Amino acid sequence: MADSTTDSLPASRAAGALLTGLDLLEGLARRPEGLGVTALAREVNADKGNVHRLLRVLEDRGYVEQDPATKIFRVSTRMISLAGQVLRGVDLVAGAGPIMRELSAATGEAVHLARRTRGGGVYVAQERQRGGRITVETEIGAQPIIYASSTGKALYCTATPEELAELLPDPFTAYTMRTHTGIDSLAADLAQVCRRGYAIDDEELNLDVRCVAAPIFDLHGVPLASIGISGPASRVTLARIGDLGRMVTVAAFRITQQVGGRVPAKFDAHPPSPTEIHG
Questions:
Q1: Are residues 183 and 245 in the same domain?
Q2: For residues 85 and 104, which has the higher predicted lDDT (pLDDT)?
Q3: pTM over 0.85
Q4: In this structure, are 13 and 55 located in the same domain?
Q5: What pLDDT is recorded for position 248?
Q6: Residue 209: other Cβ atoms inside 10 A
Q7: 10 Å Cβ neighbour count for 23?
Q8: 209-251 pLDDT per residue, tens
Q9: Beta strands 223-232 and 64-66: pairing type?
Q10: Residues 212, 248: Cα–Cα separation, whole Å
Q11: Residue 111: closest CA among 215, 254, 236, 248
Q12: Residue range(s) defining the domain that contains residue 22
């Protein structure tokens, strides 16, 4: 029988190093003028040699930087960038709200917003028309089917086939006769998303329902969310898809700007015009 104390030792050491590393970042954040290794070790009540090793790791990862002349360590701009991403993420729903309402009013269809997660995505907001008009509603907190929804395709439009294979079931579950059956057909569809700027669900998840969605990018040009339109196929016709796709692309671009994101080069072929952005 293995010694449980021995087995837990590496994990315990890793946890201790992580806690000390967090202490170092918090200590430097409190002292914007920076600190040397000795002063920082005293600040966090840790061994100087261990502090020096951890600082080198943090420096290699870009979280702290050292002045070569004074040897003083400071928090790097990468930490500011990370903090900004968190704050922008918190504001995503609030910032997207007015744009979602405009889009729903302009199209007459339900509009939804989804956040990308580690293992897929989640619907976080919805805007729909009142007054008895039949609309397609999305349950907040539900997870989009990546390969069978425009939302999921928009969230993972830049993913590689290898990334998709790790994320998706094998084989795919067929929801309709139009559902993608495997990685190859999905990857070809995602390439089209990048070329046109928006994703299409042509009755792939539910018969008689069509959807279009466009990605919202973070500052690294990676999809962090998507905004989409859903409606009955009788109204969201194939002839109308192009106009709706352009409208949802403009909405996504505006939200990307709001959160400080960057549209990657492969999407630069179809940027919205200033008139489209500002109405």
A1: yes
A2: 104
A3: no
A4: yes
A5: 95
A6: 18
A7: 17
A8: 999 999 999 888 899 999 999 989 999 999 999 999 999 999 9
A9: unpaired
A10: 7
A11: 248
A12: 4-75
